[in-house]
Amino acid sequence: MNNSKPNKDTLYRRYSEYLREKYGEKVYKLPINLPVTCPNRDGISGCGGCTFCGDEGAGFENLSNLIPVPEQIRKNKEYISKKYKARKFIAYFQNFSNTYMPFDTFKMVMEQAARENIVQLAISTRPDCIREEYLQFLSELKIKYNIDIAVELGLQTVNYHSLRKINRGHTLAEFIDAVLRIKKYGFETCAHLILNLPWDTRMDVIESAKILSALSVDQVKLHSLYIVENTVMGEQFKNREFEMISVEEYKKRVIDFLEYLSPYIVIQRLIGRAPEENTLFVNWNTSWWKIRDEIEEEMRANHYYQGRLCNYLNGSAVRHFFD
Ligand code: SF4
């Protein structure tokens, strides 16, 4: 695999390029929707869920969770194959917490997804839903079907005070524990972050980049906060209990984040997409791709790139003795 570092021309390590390097061609994600919930909603880790979370969780573009897994894969594969002439796929368990289910159910659905032309299972979940038995089973599946495993963890921020304010139901420690456990099995890890959470500052964003780099997380997916009707954060937003940062500030935070991030971490996206229905705030009423393009333009114009300021690891204070 090409591990070349980003520079002022390439800007950052793009997920699509990384997949192409790894699998030799373009690879497409097939979303799979399971009838699962989340321990932050059913009272195990917390009640009511994260303050920004609507009823749909993250996967508003998914098929119904009542459709069996093989059928969801078949339908999505047929559609994407036709549209993009795709031949390799990632089975993507996106919505809610996809390791939060009885062990036997987990084994069944993962085995059902390990089908022909599926090169990877990408499993999205919470840091407090990572358990050895499940990881051990995935490592057996990896060998049996010669399939890669990636676990996507919702972290949102490393600021554990903010995590408490958004009723996340876990702190930074559970995230660190989950990453270390997953890495033991050689699976890839992806961290999801929201760079414009109310109460977070630019320093929190930089610290997030530093902690993910120190942990050697493999991938990052950045989101911008969108605010949904009938959520706690929706009410706080209407009552003006916090100020949303400007789009200019969001762009600066993304650039800061990338500059401090290890150059080896792959970037899945710089900004999220969101449904417009029932939404009180989304991407400053601008298209996500326009904001992404503006971030890239600003980086290019100023010679900023991912990893440029990643000089704080491996005993930075004694480095000069080796220069
Ligand atoms: S962990 Fe995810 S699914 Fe659960 S409440 Fe929070 S955002 Fe919603």
UniProtKB/TrEMBL annotation:
Q: Which cofactor does it need?
A: [4Fe-4S] cluster
**Which keywords describe this protein according to UniProt?**
4Fe-4S, Iron, Iron-sulfur, Metal-binding, S-adenosyl-L-methionine
- Gene3D superfamilies for the chain: Aldolase class I
Keyword set includes Metal-binding: yes
Q: What InterPro entries does the annotation carry?
A: Aldolase_TIM (IPR013785), ELP3 (IPR039661), Elp3/MiaA/NifB-like_rSAM (IPR006638), Radical_SAM_C (IPR032432), rSAM (IPR007197), rSAM_sf (IPR058240), YhcC-like (IPR005911)
Q: What is the lineage of its organism?
A: Bacteria, Bacillati, Bacillota, Clostridia, Lachnospirales
Q: Which organism is it from?
A: Defluviitalea raffinosedens
Q: Where in this chain does the record put each Radical SAM core domain? A: 22-264
Name-wise, this protein is TIGR01212 family radical SAM protein
**GO MF annotations for this entry?**
4 iron, 4 sulfur cluster binding; catalytic activity; metal ion binding
- Looking at the UniProt entry, the stretches that span the membrane are none
NCBIfam families the record matches: TIGR01212 family radical SAM protein
Q: Which PROSITE patterns match?
A: RADICAL_SAM
Q: Does the keyword Nucleus apply?
A: no
